[in-house]
UniProtKB/TrEMBL annotation:
It comes from Littorina saxatilis. PROSITE patterns: DM10 (PS51336), NDPK_LIKE (PS51374). PANTHER family: NUCLEOSIDE DIPHOSPHATE KINASE 7 (PTHR43109:SF2). Belongs to the NDK family. This is DM10 domain-containing protein. The active site is at H211 (pros-phosphohistidine intermediate), H363 (pros-phosphohistidine intermediate). The lineage of its organism: Eukaryota, Metazoa, Spiralia, Lophotrochozoa, Mollusca.
Amino acid sequence: MSLTLADDERYCFTVEWYEEMAARVRQFQFFYFVKAQSIEMYDIKNRKMFLRTSVKENNISPADLYLGNSINVCGRLLNIVDYGDDYTRRKLSAKKERTLGMIKPDAVDKLGQILDKICQKGFLISRLRMCRMNRNQALSFYQEHQSKPFLNALLDYVTSGPVVTFEIVGENAVGAWREAIGPTDPSAARKTAPTSIRAQYGQDVTFNAVHGSSDPGAAAREIEFFFPSSGPVPPNTARVGNCTCCIIKPSAVKAGMAGKIISAITEAGFQVGATQMFTLEKANAEEFLEVYKGVVHEYSAMVVELTSGPCLVLEICAPEGSPPVAPAFRELAGPTDPEIARHLRPRTLRALFGSDKIKNAIHCTDLPDDGQLEVEYFFRILDR
Ligand SMILES: Nc1ncnc2c1ncn2[C@@H]1O[C@H](COP(=O)(O)OP(=O)(O)OP(=O)(O)O)[C@@H](O)[C@H]1O
């Protein structure tokens, strides 16, 4: 018996797409049919069907369907702005709680290890950026501690260097993340929650490595602080000096390899000057990869891969006075094809983390002179 769409479980959302050619935001009803594995979009203003496509072709799963997320459907970047019906709201809202996590300055050099641990604990990171707060911003973030005796020490601490902030989405995200980080004081954590993040990476009650929102209200406010839809945010930390660009590709992010790749990069002596999660529109991916158009016959597949989900962009830097970083980083990246890399250079990133020529774990800048340009593209032009 064939399944009609009317019998199928269906999730419905309101989504927005910024149509660049017309410079306007268009609204659609977005339908996700669970059993049929199909997607339909209905143009709200023009009251007609806009497109019908398959879930597989667009690499979208129910885990991607939550408010605030951006999904790529047929090359269009859609922002999920609201539930489209009560059934979807009831069914999905409890499963899609959000919270804010932060890696504090003393633990940012453990970024790879902490991200890996977050991933192993099964959390989904939906947005992430490295930034640096000034004192006023830190005071505003920690407004509930204005009268606490430790306020000054706390402000000194969180403004002493970059922090990495991220949004986690999932069932009971606030409580689950608080449990994962452990008690405020790392020495207590080492006794009562030895596998928690503070037990493993925290030093003392002030320098305790990570933050987690205390309740859903605080989470909403803190997410808005670091990821507002408009208005100022603490700036990203890109230095754009002796640097090169590395993109951990969507397939590697989805496979949970981002933390391990970052650890391999820092263990090889490179510094991560800045990092941010981006979900790219087709037009941006085409623009970024334009140098390969007509040169590399996998160009179209590279664009599809780069737009297939969130990627993590890193500014790779070397310590002061080092030789140009781009050629050295290309050595660590290894040959484009992971199969060749595994034969010739088995310790390179693509040999260790890539699966094929397109899903080869990372993009890295080809020509040394382009390193700054690629870093600027993400951190000066596309940032937010
Ligand atoms: N007694 C203290 N002395 C010094 N610093 C402290 C003290 N208590 C807390 N802090 C610092 O202030 C931060 C906020 O304190 P709070 O009581 O909200 O703890 P928390 O909720 O476990 O931590 P966070 O809000 O960072 O997730 C702590 O994470 C820690 O860095």
